[in-house]
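From: lab user (bench 3)
To: helpdesk
Subject: output format question, protein + NAP

Hello, I'm new to running complex predictions and I'm not sure whether the block I got back is the full result or only part of it. Here's what I submitted:
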Amino acid sequence: MKKILIQLDTDSQASVFDQVVAFDAGVEHIISIGNVTPDTVEAHVHGAMFTRGGEALKNTAIFVGGSQVDKGEAVFEKVKKTFFGPFRNAVMMDSNGSNTTSAAVVRRIASSIDLQGKKAMVLAGTGPVGIRTATLLSREGCQVSITSRSSEKAAQVCDQMKADWGVTVTPHGVTSPEELASLLQEVDIIVAAGGAGVVLLPQESWKYLTQVKVLADVNAVPPLGIEGSQVMDKGEERDGKLFYGAIAIGNVKMKIHQRCVGSLFESNKQVLGLEEIYNIAKGL
Ligand code: NAP
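Helpdesk reply: Thanks, we reran it on our side. This is the complete output you should expect:
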């Protein structure tokens, strides 16, 4: 029986990236549907859950994606609510790569440093990747802070993280390099999670921070988030600190993404959100 992936994408054009990864993970056929909303998703889920019965149900899985992470989360919730009893399919949510990328960032950092009890700062940690990275670091025992250009936005995001994931993260509004420098004095780990092409940390700001051990940057678009780092950095050392760049993180992200999609076909009960994706990443 063919392994079919139902790709439910919140964008009008379903992601080619997600399709290629799915084929590489062993999927044999993909049904791609764009413009999916919580209001329209039920019929698609019924099509998946009422066709192949019993054991065979595990051969049809659902992937929720698209560039808008909040829309993807809403569709994911509706998909889970549509299932009942034994009528369910495995489902994974990874809109804009947010879950697999944050899992990859934290696994990369964890390969260099014991996370328990460390102080971590996620720069521009208010986007989907930053929020999830901060959450995972906190779950791993770090004392985590995030920055934003707006202290109100940072506080709002931290409140939401507490409500959504049960983690306590400290918010900081940062408007000058001096403010940032003073916040980084005691930090062990720095993650740059800002939008593409935005420099968040000039070289002069990290060079002399002797207690910083690991820096990771998810932005692959020049100029990079951490000035003086390289996209290919895979634990390279500079001034006594280890660096991870966006491509090295992206390579791990691809492995996690593929492994997760592959695991959807092991059981129709699989539900892969942030936590489950991170657990799979830990096992790689
Ligand atoms: P995002 O939502 O686009 O941006 C994250 C935060 O960056 C925003 O909340 C904003 O924070 C800050 N920001 C945006 N524009 C800025 C500017 N001009 N100046 C200063 N700060 C700015 O990002 P995301 O979707 O979470 O993704 C984060 C990064 O991961 C992106 O660079 C993306 O390309 C990258 N990514 C990498 C991979 C990979 O495999 N390596 C995969 C997916 C994504 P405030 O408004 O709060 O200041």
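A quick orientation on your result: The first strand starts at residue 4 and ends at 9. Let us know if anything else is unclear.
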